[in-house]
Amino acid sequence: MTNLSPQPDPIDCQHADCNGPVLREYPGREALLGGGLSIVRALPTRGLRMVGAWCFLDHMGPMQTDAQHLIDIGPHPHIGLQTVTWLFEGQMLHKDSLGYEQIIRPGQLNLMTAGHGIAHSEESPPGSQGILQGVQFWIALPDSQRDGPAAFEHHASLPVIERGGSRITILVGELEGTRSPATVWTPLVGAEIVQDAGGSLSVALQPTHEHALFVIDGEMHIDGQPLANDRLIYLGDGRERLDLSASAGTRAILLGGEPFGAPALLWWNFVARTTEEIEQARADWERGERFGDVTRYNGDRLSAPPLTGRLKAR
Ligand code: MN
């Protein structure tokens, strides 16, 4: 994904003050990306910038794809983060400046580590038909990795915890001792909860981590309280367990992690620590340096928007 607002404001991503369990709902923002793809951006949002190292969450679609409606997000750069792509329906095609070209389907994970810099495109595969729906997250990289080499991983299958009528797929990180094979650099979890039959579900959490839920479809309750769909529900830290109940067919995303211990400045497709790093990355992209070329993409690369907002250094 790319941030397509013509004049994005820089966002100083501070984690929420963790003070034990809370239940706070944050509204997302709707936006249109390339090809008519509508998204809800749930993170960052006003009042909540990060959950652990998670600093970005887009819910993509559902979108009907056909010959006239295809996703086509041209080459654009990233630094300082990992992108995590997970689909519920449909297919997407990733191409990057390392030379990777990878179709992703439901049940599979694409993980791109930007480090010092990478460029990629995201498209509907040629001839796509049917519904596309999924999520893309960004994970801020810690200082030890944020200037490191770029990398790309595709995982064709992921570990699943089956319990009662529920399936919990561990996308990244660890939950209840089950670990995803995807490479991450801070203690965190990203998991998909699908309640096939409806009923209750209890999940053990790491109490030193902060957590959030995002309900895609269906009715989910926590401690008897209903959770709105397409909204980030911030749960705070200090929870030993999560006691959920959900209707049949409910799908939700659980995010969590150790509160991120460094400033994270988010602008366009960059996560950095200082204004100067953002300015340098923007200049490097505009000069055609540093990020490499997505040679297999047929079309123009995206231009960086103007850097007009005031970037606050912390
Ligand atoms: Mn992207």
How many strand units?
26
Sheet with most strands: 8 strands, antiparallel
- Assign an overall shape: globular
The small molecules bound here are: manganese (II) ion
Residue runs with pLDDT of under 50 for 5 or more positions? none
Any overview of this molecule?
The protein has 314 residues and is mainly beta. It contains two helices and 26 strands. The strands form five sheets. Strands 2, 14, 15, 16, 17, 19, 22 and 24 form an eight-stranded antiparallel sheet that branches. A seven-stranded antiparallel sheet has the order 3-4-5-12-7-10-13, with no helix packed on it. A four-stranded antiparallel sheet has the order 6-11-8-9, with no helix packed on it. Strand 20 (220-222) and strand 21 (225-227) form a beta hairpin. The two termini are 27 Å apart. The model has no long low-confidence stretch (mean pLDDT 92). Bound molecules: manganese (II) ion.
Brief synopsis:
This protein has 314 residues and is mainly beta.
What are the key terms here?
single chain, 314 residues, mainly beta, eight-stranded antiparallel beta sheet, seven-stranded antiparallel beta sheet, 2 helices, 26 strands, binds manganese (II) ion
